[in-house]
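User: Can you predict the 3D structure for this chain?
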Amino acid sequence: MNGRQRIWRGAAAAAALLMTAAVPVTAAGTANATGTTRTTSTTDAAGGAGEGRADAKAALRITRFLGEQTLPHMMKFQGTTFGGVSGIDRDPRTGTWFLISDDRWRYDPARFYYGRLDIDPATGAFAGVRLTGVSTLTRQDGSPYPGYAKPESADPETIRYDPRNRRVLWGSEGDRPDETHEGIPVSDLSLRWAGRDGRFRGSLPVPANLKQTGEHRGPRRNAGFEGLTFTPHGIAAMVEGPRYEDGEPPTVEHGAVTRLTLWDRAGTARAQYAYRVGRLPAEPDPSDGQTDSGVSEILAIDAHRFLALERSWLEGVGYKVRLYEFDTRGATDVLGRGSLATSAPYRPVTKRLVADLGRYGRSTQNLEAMGWGPRLNSGDCTLVVGSDDNFSDEEVTQFLAFAVRGCPSGRR
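Assistant: Here is the predicted structure, written as structure tokens:
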């Protein structure tokens, strides 16, 4: 999603959302009517919500802010224009980082970059970001993906590196027409494998309920795959916002519901869970101004727990971003449900606020990327969050690094 540039996705007001959905109650806390899980907690050193009583040892928390780095606006690199960073991930074997751009041939074809992030394992100092290469993503026939508003175009929004097969898996939101973008051809949401050279290496089947259409059903425009991660046993991806059948987008009065899908390593969709996005964190200015809000990235902690970035853009206010931890244990599998707004009660995943990321860096940017960095000598993991600058001179390509506890035990 391109944040403030997509003001046409103003959220339609509604009196209530998903009144038939079950309100979850777990050992870690209870959820209110907006779907935000409230835990019995203390405030941690980062100022976010601390651990719930049940999982105090396991809960992820930020222990230190390691610093901020930025890259120049419209920077030229190996014949391309750099920007639009919508996903990042790291090869733990070599320390190489992969960064995907959501440029849809406004400047160059769909592509990803690789490079280095300088994080000192002894001190945790975050000293710099350096690009080392770029690869154009190609279709099965070896040609680049067509640009915006053309058939079979791609909208790259997330990327992960798989150490098992040494390939990347990347997600596209796809595209479709709506009331303000008539005539846009339908391009399906997709998860595709690529070699380090960007060449097509296969794809995952997408569940039928995430099929893109030109009607008021299925995923909304620019509300497709934004979050992608590998789990210990498979793959998980989340659509940014609610499908038409699942309710309205968030407003200041109510939240929304989106879907997390889990695949096994063979590529079979095994389960789908409802995730409740919070209400808009503030009113736009003017009060009837445009807004855009949803989940911009996810990251697995273990087989059941994940991190989620909830990012909002509010006209006259700017960006607001919060980091949550959520848990799928006890949630209802909704893979076979066509609607979450009118179906029988269900239990969504539970969630816990980790931190308001607006407290870090010089300004809050359009944070869309998140990946695990190297482990520090202290035993802490590092977490890196990056922003999509929308190729706008009013925004910044920003990287924030954190030391965290409660991370995956196998990270290095």
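The chain has a mean pLDDT of 88. The two ends are 30 Å apart (CA to CA).
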